[in-house]
Amino acid sequence: MIYTALHNRWLRLLGAVFGELLSALALNLFIVPLNLYTGGAMGFCQLLRTLMAQYMGVNFGQYDVAGIFYFIVNIPILLYAWRTLGRGLVVRTLICTLTYSLFYSLIPVPTAPIIDDMLTSCLLGGIIAGVASGIILTCGCSSGGLDVVGLCLSKRGSNITVGRFSIGFNAVLYGACLFLFTPEIAIYSVIYNYFTAIVMDRLHQQNISMQAMIFTKEDEKKLSQFIIQNFGRSVTYWTGTGAYTGEGVHVLYVCLSKYEIEELRRAVHSLDPHAFVVFQSGVQVDGNFPRNLGN
Q1: Is there a contact between 110 and 29 (Cβ–Cβ < 8 Å)?
Q2: Sheet containing 248-257: which strands, arranged edge to edge?
Q3: Final residue of a domain: which of 178, 205, 232?
């Protein structure tokens, strides 16, 4: 059932929208009531909302307009990404950004924190937001913001990676929080962001690289073409000899993300039920190895 959902684009999109709802709930119920700030473009929008309320006297009521600001900020980002990242990812990101902005703006923020202890709120909010982000990314979608900018820079050959760009931006953001507010707000905001990143990385299967070695006596070119056409990955193969039987065998080697392994497993056994496959998880890959966000 999970396999079917992950490989149906409409179910993946529905799963991503559910992830956006979870993310908005985590922020509005656990983080915003404590006047803490998430990272990235949404953190900037939260900071902008606070400055408008404090220094311009704008009353936004019980609802948080940072979600509306977030959608506006993402419009030029998505226009910039259209040519670089392709129509599919941009359209999915637009849908997710719109739903996230709506959820964040419409879910009422409690007048008093649900949990008074700031560390506990950061932990719960970070876990829920991390799970939500993991669901969104595993479904082949993105919530927009800094990730899209970082991907565009990386795609255009810049030395600035997604991670470096995000860390640099958040350092400036939390430095501003430290200057404008109390040290506790900046510190606990960083703690929340850290918890979110840890949980997200644990759940995001596309961050886990795996290598597969396939031993088959069938036509190795047919299986190689399937992998190239369906995963966009190249394959290296050679001929070996089974020591027990003395017969020739074809050995195929490919690196994939953990997200893609299950489909490869099914394809191998459908083409050759007697194939022998070895998977190794958590390998380090350098060079030309794009991390796909799904189709």
Answers
A1: yes
A2: 236-241, 248-257, 209-216, 276-281
A3: 205
Give SS3 for 78.
helix
Q: Are residues 121 and 13 in the same domain?
A: yes
Tokens matching residue 227: 């992998």
pTM as predicted: 0.70
Q: Which structure tokens are listed for 258?
A: 């953990």
Q: What average pLDDT does this structure show over 14-20? A: 90
H or E element in which residue 247 lies: none
Do residue 82 and residue 213 come from a single domain?
no
Tell me if 146 sits within 8 A of 40, measured CB to CB.
Answer: yes
Residue 123's pLDDT is 93
On whether the CB atoms of residues 208 and 258 are closer than 8 A, the answer is yes
Separation in Å, CA 183 to CA 177, 186, 189, 190: 8, 5, 10, 11
Contact criterion met (CB below 8 Å) for 90 and 81: yes
* Residue carrying structure tokens 């600035």: 160
Q: Provide the residue range defining the domain that includes 153.
A: 2-205
The DSSP code for 29 is I
Q: What is the CATH number of the domain that holds 276?
A: 3.30.70.120
d(CA 244, CA 208): 34
Number of domains in the chain: 2
Please tell me the distance from the alpha carbon of residue 89 to that of residue 155, in angstroms, as a whole number. 14
Handedness of CA 216, 257, 141, 100 (dihedral sign): positive
Across the range 120-138, mean pLDDT stands at: 88
The b/e string for 262-284 (b: 16+ C-beta within 10 A; e otherwise) is ebbeebbeeebeebebeeeeeee
Residues 143 and 87 in one domain: yes
- Residue indicated by tokens 């800094």: 146
User: From CA 118, how far away is CA 158, in angstroms rounded?
Assistant: 38
